[in-house]
## 1
Amino acid sequence: MGKNKQKIDPLSMKPHEFRRLVREEVWTDITMEACQGYAQANMAILPKKYAYDFLLFCVRNPRPCPILAVTDAGDPFPKSLSTEADIRTDLPKYRIFENGEIIDEPNNIKNYWRDDLVTFFLGCSRSFLWALRSANITWKRYGAYKTTIECEPAGFFHGPLCVSVRSFKTSHEATRAIQISSRHLLMHGPPVYIGKPEDIGIYNLGQPDSFNPGRPIVEPPEENDIVMYWGCGITPQAVAIETKIPFMITHYPASMFVTDHLAEEFSNL
């Protein structure tokens, strides 16, 4: 949970209340159940020198990297997503990359902040899961994985597509999941693939992935389960490793930025 072991119910909190606990490092855990109904965002911060190429990379790869907002260089306040949030302190955990290596995973990035840094906020499938729950759809979650599918390169940036994986017991639930997620194009939209994980280079489904640690081990899908794969916002982290970018900051997997906007505000009606 965090440094303070007090009982906290993040599901019922408003985003500003939850972010305050994060800022004070009372909550340092994942954000999976935070602020019911509100949109969450993946994050990538990089020097202005690389910002145009990364913007182009996101435009060319909208399924893993749908853009919600981009800040001016040196501006830590994402005003279009929250009136009072500070990107340097308001995620439970971050990742610092230098030359493609993870060098730190701090609870704030005050010591790493620079005036040339541009922040990209990318949609997160956590946001449309609220809609799946409202439709009484059930699923099994397997976490996120790198695939053998290559993203479309853009300037400096290239690398593998990452996906989040879920299985469904019935064709009805799978179809409804496709329909509902298709309304949320800014939150990765519909699946990018349906079928066997081995076909896209995933051979350890249900087992911990060293690239995405901390995920619980789950049983593999049953024979008749429908397994679907959505673009995932940890793709920029795989790209950081692939390109050996000199410096990048991202969210730690599943430690997202919680916005002030309901997920439905970003949906395509």
## 2
Amino acid sequence: MTSPRISLLLILISSVVLFVNGCKSSEEFSGYSYDPEGVTETTDKEIESQNKRTIGFRDDGVWISNEFSGSRVNDVVRVAAGHYELRIRPEISPINNSPWYGFQVWADDSTEVTLDLTYTDGRHRYRPDISYDGGESWSKADSTLYIRDRENGKGRITLDIGTEPVWISAQVPQTTREFRQWSDEIALNPFVQRSVAGTSHQGRPVYQLKISEYSDEPVKGVILIYGRQHPPEIPGYLTGLFFIEELISDSELAKQFREYFDVWAFPMMNPDGADNGHWRANAAGIDLNRDWQYFNQPETAAVRNAILPLQNRSDRKVFYAIDFHSTGQTIFYPILEEIDTFPHLFTYRWLDGIREKLPDLEVNVEPFPTDSPIAKNWSHFTFGIDAVTYEVWDNLPKDELEQLGVQSAQLFMEMMIEEFEKEMK
């Protein structure tokens, strides 16, 4: 018979071995091929804070400003009369190539300006959105206004301006202000509870939306939704909002879905990055979607701490997790087929259904192993579930974003109801 002291010693040794193995696994993973070196080292780093100011060229009567939330232009240099170079730098370097920009430009009199967008540690990626009415309405710049120099990694915008500021942005801005307005509307539903899961480095709230309608079911399923870990990835973020809106709609399908499922959503996980016009990181220079092992950052730690109580609830069973992002194509990144998940191969079956419902939309797939510290993999390891990184094309028009969000949500609900009935009935 083993003595209590020896048993305790064996437990301690086992714990140390597991801890060391866990550390070794993380050190061996150095990020994806497109990641900068050391991206999975998620302790705080020093960032370059943007200097907010309006830069004027009095002789030309032209003014360029970044004095608003979600903007980014670090410096402006006059090339010639009416021709300006806007220099844009990331919050930290090296960094993934998601070069966000946002600014206002106006003139004392009507004139034409040429604006060259140049980048430090990045290449031009996003076709500009332009607003002539103070940010109320936006349109993508066409070839008469905008060219992309792929050889030199620059963008050029040529347009007529006057005394009213023209807003130019890498995507239509979606700051914490817009999110708060959207979530105010969502929270009017009696079955939607908005709470603060935690706060960011700069004290902004990281909100949780809990969608939970009364049900006679003794055990309900739970769907986890993450979003906006990377500030510029607004198309994926908006698709996620449309997706959530469909889950809380008055349709008979949504009502039946809510009888069986709760939704725990964190649609705006990087509020500091969104408001500060960051390319990728939070206010501590960290890619939040590489901090899902040690949780060094307050944003990821807040979300983890909000979710973990589900492990101990007998009346809830986590079924699935979705993490919304954007990239150069609409693509699903599922877990490898040979890895055992619940529900079995759900992502692949869901994707097949989306392709059938939206035959004109190209949706690609690229499976990945689970050896990276990202939200999808943490959800899988914590609950044994299937999960997906849901990426939306950078330039997908808003009406198609809405269609994708709505149609994929409808199919998701249909399939999840089937899974619930199969598993729980």
